[in-house]
Write a structure and sequence with these properties.
The protein is α/β, with parallel strands linked by helices and 414 residues long. It is built from 14 helices and 14 strands. The N terminus is likely disordered.
Length: 414
């Protein structure tokens, strides 16, 4: 640990989990590594967990909360109270600030486990605070603006009681009621609006959507996600299939993709697991689609599967933010077929780096698959090269670093 009063800049990096659990954690860890690499002291703050990476600061982490585990009624009550307002997180981050006075705090996901109570403590200590918006929780109590497989904006205009009315959280009255109370309390206390200095938003779509829901545009700064193209091979022997990589969940549009594969006669590889897997296997059998379920893949195995594909398919049917999977496909030299929803269209240059289709429309997606197949290997390789060149310039680590440093400077912290 660096001594207090050091001339080096110090970043307090905040996230619920301190292991690579999902997309938000990938951004969190890559952000920390980037700033450590340019000479900053990086101090993490997270939740205790068996899978956490080691850290000399873990003694300040808050007690573990895992909602899927069976616990007694008293423990459940304590967890519910922490969701609403975590005094433990406030105490621990207060001690951490005293030990390692940060130049700036940058939060990622804090909902439920850490709670935005920490922002009051940071504000009182005069620490500038930025927070990356990974989802739509600041507007929609249920994160996704999604209900029964369709986009839902019923809570717009302050009508957050709809989260209980529709039982949006796991179809549970109790959980939905708790999230309703959480939302009302946090808004009444201004824990995000008044205690966070800037919201870092990876997609322009999310900026526009949050503005529609009443957030001030001046509070937000657009900083796209990034990948290091140098970490990805781009010379692959192309196979005869399209690929989807991600969780097999309803909002991902995989049922539409399977129907489109059947309609277009294209071969499809699905890399991932999730709650829809059995239903999707049945659908593939019913439609006669040529689908291979590859299970969960990561690292080199996933890169090889995508790198040898004709294109990555991203048929989402909800408001995606800025999927890193698109950037990874480009880095691997592959084009992308994406649904025209959320932040996806701003990551695809139609006809140059990929193609767009109508979300939820199997015929539109089938036409896009057939059009991509008709381009031939040379045409697809050219699209992949264009995507790789684009992200090397606009979605690079260097671009992310400079944009973030500019933000920190504007907050007086760099």
């Amino acid at each position: 640990m660096a001594a207090e009063g050091s001339a080096r800049r110090r970043l307090l990096a905040i996230n619920n989990y301190f292991y690579r659990r999902g997309g938000a954690e990938a951004v969190f860890f890559d952000h920390m590594a980037m700033f450590a690499g340019i000479g900053w002291d990086v101090v993490p703050f997270a939740m205790q967990h068996d899978e956490n990476e080691p850290s000399p600061w873990s003694g300040y982490f808050v007690s573990e909360i895992e909602y899927g585990r069976r616990t007694g009624p008293l423990r459940k009550a304590a967890q519910a109270a922490s969701i609403l307002y975590s005094f433990e997180a406030q105490r621990n981050i207060g001690r951490l600030i005293e030990q390692a006075r940060p130049s700036v705090a940058h939060a990622h996901n804090v909902y439920h486990h850490l709670s935005p109570a920490i922002f009051s403590t940071l504000k009182a200590a005069g620490i500038p605070v930025a927070m990356t918006v990974h989802d739509l929780k600041l507007a929609c109590p249920a994160y996704k603006m999604l209900r029964d497989g369709k986009v839902c904006e019923d809570c717009k205009g302050g009508r957050v009681y709809n989260v209980l009315r529709h039982r949006c959280i796991k179809d549970s009255w109790a959980l939905s009621g708790l999230v309703l109370v959480e939302t009302v309390l946090h808004r009444a206390l201004g824990l995000y609006r008044d205690k966070v200095d800037r919201l870092v938003v990876p997609s322009r779509f999310y900026i526009d959507k949050l503005v529609e829901w009443g957030w001030p545009r001046g509070m937000m700064v657009h900083i796209p996600n990034f990948v290091n193209v140098e970490d990805y091979a781009a010379a692959w022997d192309e196979g005869d299939y399209f690929v989807f990589a991600g969780r097999l969940a309803p909002e991902k549009g995989i049922a539409t993709l399977i129907r489109a594969a059947a309609l277009s006669g294209q071969r499809l590889m699905l890399a991932g697991t999730g709650p829809e897997e059995e239903a999707l296997r049945r659908l593939a059998a019913e439609t006669g689609a040529d689908v291979t379920f590859c299970g969960y893949l990561s690292g080199d195995a996933l890169h090889a599967l995508i790198g040898r594909s004709r294109a990555l398919a991203l048929p989402s049917e909800w408001y995606e933010n800025a999927p890193i999977s698109v950037l990874e496909a480009y880095a691997l030299g592959r084009p992308v077929i994406g649904a025209a929803i959320g932040g996806i269209p701003e990551m695809i240059r139609e006809g140059e780096t990929g193609l767009l289709s109508v979300p939820g429309d199997a015929h539109s997606l089938a036409a896009a698959l057939a059009a991509m197949a008709a381009k031939g290997a040379a045409g697809r390789a050219a699209m992949g090269r264009a995507g790789r060149a684009w992200i090397a310039a606009e979605f690079s680590a260097a671009a992310y670093r400079e944009r973030t440093l500019d933000l920190y400077r504007s907050l007086g912290a760099a």
